[in-house]
Each structure stands twice: as structure tokens, then as C-alpha cells.
Write a structure and sequence with these properties.
The complex is a heterotrimer of chains A (about 375), B (about 350) and C (about 120).
Chain A lengths: L1 H36 L15 H10 L11 H18 L6 E6 L2 E5 L7 H22 L3 H32 L4 H11 L8 H14 L11 H4 L9 H26 L14 H20 L5 H30 L3 H30 L12
Helix pairs in contact in A: 1-9, 1-10, 2-9, 3-4, 3-9, 4-5, 5-6, 5-7, 5-11, 7-11, 7-12, 9-10, 11-12
Chain B lengths: L20 H4 L9 H4 L7 H16 L5 H29 L3 H22 L8 E2 L2 E2 L7 H24 L2 H7 L7 H6 L5 H4 L7 H4 L20 H24 L19 E8 L4 E8 L5 E7 L1 H6 L2 H4 L5 H11 L3 H5 L1
Antiparallel strand pairs in B: 1-2, 3-4, 4-5
Helix pairs in contact in B: 3-4, 4-5, 4-11, 4-14, 5-6, 6-11, 11-14
Chain C lengths: L4 H24 L30 H24 L1 H4 L1 H23 L7
Classes of the chains: A mainly alpha (about 375), B mainly alpha (about 350), C mainly alpha (about 120).
Chain lengths: ~375, ~350, ~120
């Protein structure tokens, strides 16, 4: 009993420390990586390869003057940055990051809390991040902040639907809400969920990008329209808190997607080295998001909402229906049939979208796409 | 704010950048004023300089040597490319894509390197002179320029990948703020902003000046009149300008690059208007001389100034997010608007 | 041991960190007085006009309502998904009816234009 208590406390502290130390590294990585993609050098003054740049930034932000702009609602203004970071950290508690190990003759789960409703817990906590944006936008006494807060909240709740619907399909495959069970079921199926749930994976990839407020869906902080969105009035460490929250959220989402779709801590080949594969998968996912950010321009707000409500929701419903039908009718071969079916469905959805775009382009006269510009 | 968030009315507020530059001309000799014209449209300073010199030549009835004309064309077209690159980059940046901006500036930097080689400056060149150019091309210019011309098509494909063929970008630009041909003409638009509305008016083609008739190029015209068309017109113009530079470089005649003229130029009394196809449209210079060393009046027709007028009718009714694309697609340089 | 206890640990640690950082920032970067302009809301250099807490488009409220409706239906799917294999064909048909009703609502919402943003 006491051992468990101490062990879980130590695990909680360790996970907190690791995730928090990821944040400055990720900030550095993103700046450096995007710089390289853009033929720039990126941070290189503080420390080797500029590695200490985020630390320097944090120090700078913490010694900045604490400003409460006039007319802010102090309590909510103070709470908002914390509301965006704490849930993200707490959500990490249920992520299993390795198979159980034996320490001092006892089995220890590499997971802070093994609860049987892990998926629901994570979905619930990640929705809480909305409060950070709404409270910040409302309390700031700034029109841009209000607009940013509203935009962000509407965007986040809209994209929660496709996320919820895609995760249900995973639960269908697994038959459990425990994240440990999700990983084990992928081992027993002998195939990672990304294959039988390919469409679900794509939907989740897009939805989480919107949920994280990252480019090309960073409408809540679109600098060419509403300055900095809901954190316009934030400076110093309160701003840093938002910034950190964004990256903690990204780590949590990456870990969640790894567990749900990429087989968790399992090795794709070779021996299973604790944590190594888990970290590789998380980073692969994060790097993908950074790449996306460097590539795309920002979408417009109505386009964003249309994508969520009119494309991703029906697509995830179709995915859910297909998964359910194949599981019932396919019997023991269900996962294999699904692996083919989901790719077919993804292609089908892509074709429908292409056709819809072509149809709309045709129906509006004079808007034909440019015929091969060039001399 | 209970209504949808759209632009209802727009008021173009000009003046903060006013420097009284046209007035200054009345207190300077023709040559003393040379460096100042670079400050009109500072993204295409070579074109400003060329226009000013051509106007003086017209006023004084001179002809620059052919080699100078060719060099001017090379410089003007290179500068047009550089200016359009800034347009492509900043438009992308306004729409939230940071990478094309850096890519475009990378290529612009190479053009500026070429200018640097020729005249030692990278932004305000002061390279054109009445009667020719300030200095002949250095020997290393031609190979470096050819290298640039060879590199450029691949780079343009890169922008196409990032912007022109990007679904998000196209969706934000297509059908936005359509300007009809009649409206465009009535508003006095010119340059790519006009040609995107289906009016194929290009001074280089219809009132040829300098040695443009000797080159083979197409006028980029699009029918749609929306933001996407304005963008595509400019990317197409980059390609055409590359063609012109290539031809001018190949056909560069030998000979002097300038004629000697008196620094205290005293053109005969009279007035003259000359216009060229600037990077943003019809750039004109009206010069009145009374036979002394200083002009009586200089008036600059700035394309950005006229093109800005379209905003009052193009913006209302569109979303705030669209206004970014619309203003970006008209490509205004404020240094030229306020003068 | 209650399996939810470690979550509490995690929450406490995270909150403690956040509070400690904020407190430290308050201590180190002590607010200094300044002209009123210094504390004015940022509006790109122009003096703010009117209240920032203005009325905003009702559309956002509509989206929130739609979200609640649909999200609750999604939540109903979770228990069903867990026991789906036991339910078999019965569960499939049952959920097909449930999703059918949801779909009708969805199509209605789409048709009346609640998903259009102006």
C-alpha cells in the first residue's frame, strides 16, 4: 500500500518533470526546424546550437513587469493561463508509456494512473483547455481578445465532435476504455490501429491540429486579423504559461495518438527498449505538426467550421458505421477486412471532396481554376 | 457586433508618409533630384529612375545609346521580378504562410546582389542617368545573371507548390473581391491589378518605349478579376520578365553605356509627360521646364495611389479575414502613395 | 489504493507549479505605476472606443448548443462501444437506429443553414 503510494507519487513527479522539460526543448526544436525549412539559421546565440534560448526566454518573461491592464477581471485574468496548462499536464497521467517493469520485486506500471476510463478522462480534460481561451478572451477587456477567445472556443468544441466519433471506433476495436487495454489489443491483433482505422487517424490528425490551435488552424491568434487573439493582453510569465500550455498539450496529444493508433510503446521491429519507441513515435508525430505549420497558409474561419462540421463529422460517422458493421459481420477476420476497408473509405472520402470542389468551381461562372499558367 | 463580422465601409487615410517630394524637385537641378526618385516606389527603384531619366531625355530631346537602353531594360525587368517577389512573399505571409515569404526573399536577395554588383546599392540605386546609366555593367554581371535566370524556373515551381497549387491558399483567394473590367477601367487601375480583370493593357506593348519592341514577351492577362487572378498575373509576369532579361542579355550590344551631358542641364522650356509600365501599373512623370536648371513642376503618377482607390469598393461586404487577402492582392507601396 | 489518487497527485503538482511560477513572477516583476496609457488595452495604437465586452454574433451560441447536442450523443456511443462485441447484431441495429435519428437532426441542422458561416 505504502509502496504503491510512494511509487505513484514518484511517477507523477517524474512524468511532470519530463513533460515540462520537453517544453523548452520542443520550443527550441520548432524554432530551429522551421528555421531550417525556411533557409534560416534559427536560434544559435544562447548555449550550444541555441539550446538555451527557451530558458533565456523564460527568464526574460519571468522578470518582466507584471501588468494588469485596465478593466481586466483580475481573478479570471489570473486563472486563464493556468487553465490552459494544468489540464494538459493532468491529462498525461493516464498515458501508458511502457510495459510494466519489475522494481524491488514488485510490478510497476509505467503509467501514473491506470484507470479503466482513461480515454474518457483524456477527452474530458482536453476539453477543459477551452476555458483558458474563453476566460482569457473575456477577462482581458480587449476586443481582439474577445474575438480570439470566441473563435478559439467555437473551433475547439466543433472539432471535439470528430475526435469523439473517431475515438469511438477505436473503442469498438478494443472493447475497453483503458489506454493500457488499447495498446494490448493492438499487440493481440498483430497490427497497429492506424491500419484498420486509417480514416480515423487522418480525421484525428486534422482535428487535433485544430484543437491545438496550431497553423493552419490558428485562427484564434491570427496575427493579420486579430493581433494575437485571446492572449493579446498577456505579457510576462502569464503569457509564458499559455505558451507552455500549448506545447504541453501538443505532447499530450502526441502521446495519445501514439497510444491509440501507433501501438503505444511497442517496437515495430527489433527488441522492445523501454521508452525509446514511445518517444520516437511521439516525436515523429510532433515533427509532422511542425512540418505542417511551416507549409500551409491559414484557413478562413468559415472554411474552418465547414471543414469540421460538414466534412470531418460525416466522414467520422461513415468510419464508425463501417467499423461497426465489419466487426459484427467479419468475425475473427474483422481487423484485416477493416485494414483494407478503411483505406478504401479514405480514398472514397477524398474523391467525394474532390468532386465537391470541382462541382462548386464549375457552378460559379468565371471562377474556373487557372489553366496551367506558364510561358 | 451582432451582425456577421464584415467590412461595411472603408476610409483610405493617406498622408503619414508624405515627404513633399514633388515640391523638392522645384528646388533642385535635374541631376540633384536623381537620388530622390528612388524613394517613390522603393521596391522598384530602378523603374523610377528609368522613368525620370526617360522623361528628361524626352524633354531635352536626347537619345541614350543602345547599350544603355538594353542595360535599363535588364535592370527594370529584374527589379520588376524583385518587386513581384516581395508581393508573393508578403501575400503569403498575410495569409499565415511564413515559408514562401522567406523563399521569395531568398530570390530577391540574389537580384539585389546583382544590383549591388552593378551600382553598389541594394534598395535605392541611383543608377540611371539622363543619357544612359551611371556605370557600364561589370564583367561578372552577365554570368551571374545567367545563373540566376537558370535557377529561377525551379524556384517558381517551388512557390507554385507552396501557394498556387495549395488548396487552402486558392480557396482563400478564388472569387474574392472580383473587380469587373469596366469598373477596373473606371477606377483608373493599371498594371497587374487591371490586367487581372481582363483588360490586357500593358504600356510596354501598346505604347512601346525604350527597346521593348525588340523583345518577345506575352502580356499576362486573366479574366476572373479576383484576388487569385491578381496573384497569378504577377507570377506570370515574373516568368515573362525572365524571358525579357534573357533576351536582353543575349542581345546586349557593344558600345558606350552613356552619353556625356552637361550636369547643369537646361532643357528648353516646355512640358512633357512620359509613362512606363511600372511594377504596380502605369507610372508616369510630368515635367515642366522653363529653360533653367530646375524644373518648374514635377508630378508623379503613382500606380499605387490610383490602385488604392479600388479598396473603397472592393472591400465592403467581405470578411475581415478577406480584407487581408484583398489589400495584399492589390500590392500597394505606401512610399509611392504619399510621396 | 484508489487508482484515481495518482491523478490527484498530478493535478496538485501541476497546480502547485503554476501557482508558484505566477507568484514568483509577481514577486520578481513587481508592477510599477505609470500613466494611464500604459495600462490601456492594446488596439494597435488607436484609443479604444466603447466596451470590449460587446455583444457578439449569436452564431457562437448556436455552435455551442449544437456541440452540446451532438457531443452528448457521442458520449452515449462510448458505453455501447465497450460492450459492442457482446451485443452483436442487436447492438448494431440498435445503434443504427440511434445514429439514424442523429443523422436526421444533423441533416436538418445543415439544411436550415446552421452550419453556414457568413
Amino acid at each position: 500500500m505504502l509502496f504503491d503510494l510512494i511509487a505513484s507519487f514518484i511517477k507523477a513527479v517524474l512524468v511532470f518533470a519530463v513533460v515540462m522539460s520537453f517544453v523548452p526543448f520542443l520550443i527550441w526544436l520548432e524554432r530551429k526546424l522551421v528555421a531550417w525549412m525556411q533557409q534560416r539559421i534559427g536560434p544559435n546565440r544562447t548555449g550550444p546550437f541555441g539550446l538555451l534560448q527557451p530558458i533565456a526566454d523564460a527568464v526574460k518573461l519571468i522578470i518582466k513587469e507584471n501588468i494588469f491592464p485596465s478593466g481586466v477581471e483580475k481573478i479570471t485574468y489570473f486563472l486563464a493561463p493556468m487553465m490552459s496548462m494544468i489540464p494538459a499536464l493532468a491529462a498525461f497521467a493516464v498515458i501508458p508509456f511502457g510495459s510494466p517493469v519489475r522494481i524491488m520485486g514488485r510490478t510497476v506500471n509505467l503509467q501514473v494512473a491506470d484507470v479503466n476510463i482513461g480515454i474518457l478522462y483524456i477527452l474530458a480534460l482536453s476539453s477543459l483547455a477551452v476555458y483558458g481561451a474563453v476566460l482569457a478572451g473575456w477577462s482581458s477587456n480587449n476586443k481582439y481578445s474577445l474575438l480570439g477567445g470566441l473563435r478559439t472556443s467555437a473551433q475547439m468544441i466543433s472539432y471535439e465532435l470528430p475526435i469523439g466519433l473517431s475515438v469511438v471506433s477505436i473503442v469498438l476495436l478494443t472493447g475497453s476504455l483503458s489506454l493500457n487495454e488499447v495498446v494490448r489489443s493492438q499487440a493481440s491483433h498483430g497490427i497497429w490501429n492506424i491500419f484498420p482505422q486509417f480514416l480515423g487517424f487522418i480525421i484525428l490528425l486534422i482535428s487535433y491540429n485544430a484543437e491545438l490551435n496550431r497553423a493552419p488552424f490558428d485562427l484564434g491568434e491570427a496575427e493579420s486579423e486579430i493581433v494575437a487573439g485571446y492572449h493579446t493582453e498577456y505579457s510576462g510569465f502569464r503569457f509564458a504559461m499559455f505558451y507552455m500550455g500549448e506545447y504541453v498539450n501538443m505532447v499530450t496529444v502526441a502521446a495519445l495518438v501514439t497510444v491509440l493508433f501507433l501501438g503505444g510503446w511497442q517496437a515495430p521491429f527489433g527488441p522492445e527498449i523501454p521508452l525509446l519507441w514511445f518517444l520516437i513515435k511521439i516525436f515523429a508525430f510532433i515533427l509532422l505538426y511542425m512540418w505542417v505549420r511551416a507549409t500551409f497558409p491559414r484557413v478562413r474561419y468559415d472554411q474552418l467550421m465547414a471543414l469540421g462540421w460538414k466534412i470531418l463529422v460525416p466522414a467520422s460517422l461513415a468510419n464508425l458505421a463501417m467499423t461497426a458493421v465489419i466487426i459484427v459481420l467479419g468475425g475473427p477476420n474483422a481487423v484485416r477486412i477493416l485494414s483494407v476497408g478503411s483505406i478504401v473509405l479514405a480514398v472514397l472520402v477524398g474523391l467525394v471532396l474532390k468532386a465537391a470542389v470541382a462541382l462548386r468551381t464549375k457552378s460559379a461562372p468565371g471562377l474556373a481554376p487557372p489553366a496551367g499558367a506558364g510561358s | 457586433m451582432t451582425k456577421p463580422i464584415r467590412t461595411e465601409e472603408i476610409e483610405v487615410s493617406m498622408g503619414p508618409l508624405h515627404r513633399g517630394m514633388e515640391k523638392i524637385a522645384e528646388k533642385r537641378t535635374y541631376f540633384q533630384y536623381m537620388p530622390l526618385v528612388d524613394r517613390f516606389d522603393y521596391l522598384a527603384a530602378m523603374l523610377n529612375g528609368a522613368l525620370y531619366c526617360m522623361t528628361i531625355e524626352k524633354l531635352a530631346g536626347m537619345e541614350p545609346p543602345r547599350r544603355a537602353e538594353y542595360i535599363r531594360v535588364i535592370m527594370m525587368e529584374l527589379n520588376r521580378i524583385a518587386s513581384h517577389l516581395v508581393f508573393v512573399g508578403t501575400l503569403g505571409l498575410d495569409l499565415g504562410a511564413s515559408t514562401p515569404f522567406i523563399y521569395c526573399f531568398r530570390e530577391r536577395e540574389e537580384i539585389l546582389d546583382l544590383f549591388d554588383l552593378v551600382c553598389g546599392a541594394r534598395m535605392t540605386f541611383n543608377y540611371m542617368r539622363p543619357g544612359g546609366v551611371a556605370k557600364d555593367l561589370p564583367p561578372e554581371f552577365a554570368p551571374k545573371c545567367r545563373e540566376f535566370l537558370k535557377k529561377m524556373p525551379a524556384r517558381l515551381r517551388e512557390y507554385d507548390d507552396l501557394l498556387s497549387n495549395n488548396e487552402i491558399f486558392v480557396e482563400r483567394m478564388r472569387g474574392v473581391a472580383k473587380i469587373g473590367a469596366d469598373e477596373a477601367v473606371n477606377l483608373g487601375l493599371s498594371g497587374p491589378t487591371l490586367r487581372a480583370s481582363g483588360v490586357g493593357f500593358d504600356i510596354r506593348r501598346f505604347e512601346p518605349y525604350s527597346v521593348y519592341p525588340e523583345f518577345d514577351f506575352d502580356v499576362a492577362v486573366r479574366e476572373e478579376g479576383d484576388c487569385l487572378a491578381r496573384y497569378l498575373c504577377r507570377t506570370e509576369e515574373i516568368r515573362q520578365s525572365l524571358r525579357i532579361v534573357q533576351q536582353a542579355l543575349d542581345g546586349l550590344p557593344e558600345g558606350p553605356s552613356s552619353t556625356r551631358i552637361n550636369m547643369n542641364l537646361k532643357p528648353a522650356a516646355g512640358e512633357v509627360y512620359h509613362h512606363i509600365e511600372g511594377a504596380r501599373g502605369e507610372m508616369g512623370c510630368y515635367l515642366v521646364s522653363d529653360g533653367t536648371t530646375t524644373p518648374v513642376r514635377l508630378k508623379w503618377r503613382a500606380p499605387s495611389f490610383s490602385n488604392l482607390a479600388v479598396l473603397t469598393s472592393a472591400l465592403p461586404g467581405w470578411k475581415v479575414a478577406d480584407s487581408v487577402a484583398i489589400i495584399g492582392s492589390i500590392d500597394v507601396v505606401l512610399g509611392e502613395v504619399d510621396r | 489504493m484508489n487508482p484515481y489518487l495518482p491523478i490527484l497527485f498530478m493535478l496538485v503538482i501541476a497546480t502547485a507549479f503554476a501557482l508558484a511560477a505566477m507568484a514568483l513572477a509577481l514577486f520578481v516583476g513587481r508592477p510599477r505605476p505609470g500613466p494611464e496609457r500604459k495600462f490601456a488595452p492594446y488596439e494597435c495604437g488607436i484609443e479604444p472606443v466603447g466596451s470590449a465586452r460587446d455583444r457578439f454574433p449569436v452564431k457562437f451560441y448556436l455552435v455551442a448548443m449544437l456541440f452540446i447536442l451532438f457531443d452528448i450523443e457521442v458520449i452515449f456511443l462510448y458505453p455501447w462501444a465497450v460492450v459492442f462485441r457482446q451485443l452483436g447484431v442487436f447492438g448494431l441495429i440498435e445503434m443504427a437506429i440511434f445514429l439514424g435519428i442523429l443523422l436526421v437532426g444533423y441533416i436538418y441542422v445543415w439544411r436550415v443553414g446552421a452550419l453556414e458561416w457568413q
